[in-house]
Amino acid sequence: MSDASLTFSDLTLGYGSHPAVHHLNGPVERGSLTAVVGPNGSGKSTLMKGIVGIVKPMAGAVKTAPGQRLAYLPQQSEIDRSFPARVLDLIGLGLWPKRGLLRRYDHRDRENLRDALDAVGLAGFEHRPIDTLSGGQLQRALFARVLVQKADLILLDEPFNAIDAKTTSDLIALIRHWHGERRTVLVVVHDFELVRDHFPQTLVLARRPIAWGRTQDVMQPDILARARRFDEAWHDDAPWCAADGPHAGHDHTGTASSPVPAAAQRSGSL
Amino acid sequence: MIDLLVSPFVEFAFMRRALLGVVLLSISSCPVGVFLMLRRMSLAGDAMAHAILPGAATGFLLFGLAIVPMTVGGLIAGVLVALGAGAVSRLTVQKEDASMAAFYLISLAVGVLIVSLRGSSVDLMHVLFGSVLALNDEALTLIAGISIATLAALLLLWRGLIAECLDPLFLRSVSGIGPLVHFVFLGLVVLNLVGGFQALGTLLSVGLMMLPAAAARFWTARVDTMCLLAIAIGIASSTAGLLLSYHFTLPSGPAIILSAGLVYFVSILFGGRGILRVLVTRHRHRTA
C-alpha cells in the first residue's frame, strides 16, 4: 500500500443525488500507466475531476500520496483562446506549482519552457498568439504545459479527441516517456487499439467499476460488452444506495468482484 | 497654440486639481478596464456603476452632498452587489451576467428611490454626472489612495489575473487562489468606479475605465502593453476633455468621455488590428 500514488476508498462522485462514479475501491500504483475506458457518461471525466478535487465526493474518499504534484489536462478546457497570450504565456502557466503567484521566472525556467516546446514538436511557436493554433497544435502546447509542471501524477482526459494519427503517436510517445520516468499516469481513452498497444493497466468504468487490472486480462469481449450495456440515464425513482453493501474493488484478476444482475442494471439501481 | 493647451492649467487651480484627479484615475482604472474587457465583463463594469448609486444616495440622504459619506456608501453598496452576484454565480447554476444584472437593477431602483426621498433633480444630476472641476483636497486624497492601492493589487495579483482569465480550470487544478483573485478584482472595479464618481459621476466613471481599454485592444496583442497604452489613452483623453470643456464651456465629464470615444473610433479604423489594416493585409500573404 505504501507505494500507492492514489487510493480510492469507496469513492462515490456525482451530481445532485445521482452517482456518476459509484463505489470505486483500490490503489493506483506509483509509476503505473492506466487507461480509463468506458462508454459516454460512464463517469470517466467525473473520476478525473474527483481526483483533482473539482468535484467533491458524495461518499468515500480519494487519498493522494503526500507531496505529489498533480497535472490535469481536462477534456473540455476552459482556455479563452481570444485572450491575447502567446504560446509561451500558455505553457508558462505550468510553472505555477514551482513559482506560484510572486516568485520570478529565472533563465532555467525559460529554458524549461523552450525544452518542453521542443519535446512536443512546437519549437519556433514561442511567440505565436494562441488564437492562431490549430486543434492539434493547441493539444501539443497543453502537453508541453504538463511537461513544464513536472508532476508526479498526470491525469489526461481524452487527450486524443480530434487529433490526427501523427500527433497522437507523438503524444503517446511522451506518455510512455513519463511512464518510463516512474510518473503515475491515468488517461481516459476511447480507442481500444491504443489501450491494448500502449497501456499496461486498464480500468473499465460504467458508473461502477466493471473491471480493473492488467490490460490483457481486462480488455476482454465479455467485460467490454458488460460495460456497453450500462444504463446511462438517471432515474429519480431509483432506490437509495445502501452504503455498506458489497462493492466492486480493485481486482487484478481482471473481473469485478460483485457481478450485478442484469435486471438491476436495467433499472439503473446500481 | 501652446498657450491654449497650457494656460488653463497654469492660471486656474481648479483646472490643475481636475487634471491631477483624472490622471490619477486613468492610471488605476484603465488597466482595470483592460482586464474587465479581456474577461468579457465590459458590461459588468456598467452594472457595477449603477450598483454604487444606492450607497452614494444613502450617504447623500444622511449627510448631504459630502464626499466621504457618499464614497463609503457607494463602496459598501458596490461590494455587496459584487459579492452577491459573484457568490450566486459561483454557488449556483446561474452565470455571472444574469446574477449581476439582477443585483444591479435592484440596487439601482433602491438608489433612485433614496435620492427622490430628499434631493431635487439638480442633486440627482450631480450624483449621476459628477463634477471634476470641483474636486477638493479630500476627494483628491481619496483618488490618490485608490490609485496606489489599485496599482499595488494589480502588480501583486498579475500572474493570478492572467491565469484566471486565460485558463481558469487550470488555475483551479494547481491553486485555490482563483476565487480570491476574482473577488479582489471585482473589489478593484468597485473601488475605481467609486473613485471616478466624484469626478465623472456614477454613470460616466465607467467610461474612463472601458473606452481606453477597448481602444488599446486594437493596437497590441500583449496584455502588459495594452494596460500601458490604455493608461496613456486615458490620460490623453482626460487632458483633451478638460481643455475642450474649458475653451468651449462644455460639461467636463462628457467632454472627457467623448474624447476617449474619439480615440476608440480612430483605433477601430486605423489600429494595428483595426478595420483598414485587416482590409489591406487580406490581399497579401506569405508562402508559409
From TrEMBL, chain A:
The keyword Zinc is annotated on this UniProt entry: yes
A single MF term (Gene Ontology): ATP hydrolysis activity
Domain ABC transporter stretches: 6-232
Domain of life: Bacteria
Keyword tags: ATP-binding, Ion transport, Nucleotide-binding, Transport, Zinc, Zinc transport
Chain intervals for the UniProt region annotation (Disordered): 241-270
Pfam families: ABC_tran
GO biological process: zinc ion transport
Keyword Ion transport: yes
Family that this chain belongs to: Belongs to the ABC transporter superfamily.
PANTHER family reported for this sequence: IRON TRANSPORT SYSTEM ATP-BINDING PROTEIN HI_0361-RELATED, METAL TRANSPORT SYSTEM ATP-BINDING PROTEIN TM_0124-RELATED
Protein known as: ATP-binding cassette domain-containing protein
Species: Nitratireductor arenosus
Species classification: Bacteria, Pseudomonadati, Pseudomonadota, Alphaproteobacteria, Hyphomicrobiales
From TrEMBL, chain B:
Species this chain originates from: Nitratireductor arenosus
One GO term of the biological process aspect: response to zinc ion
Family listed: Belongs to the ABC-3 integral membrane protein family.
Subcellular locations according to the entry: Cell membrane; Membrane
Membrane topology qualifier: Multi-pass membrane protein
Stretches of the chain forming a coiled coil according to its record: none
Record key words, sorted: Membrane, Transmembrane, Transmembrane helix, Transport
Name of the protein: Metal ABC transporter permease
One GO cellular component term noted in the UniProt record for this chain: ATP-binding cassette (ABC) transporter complex
Top-rank taxon, per record: Bacteria
InterPro entries for the chain: ABC_BtuC-like (IPR037294), ABC_TroCD (IPR001626)
Keyword Transmembrane: yes
Transmembrane portions of the chain: 18-38, 50-68, 74-93, 100-119, 139-157, 169-191, 197-219, 226-249, 255-276
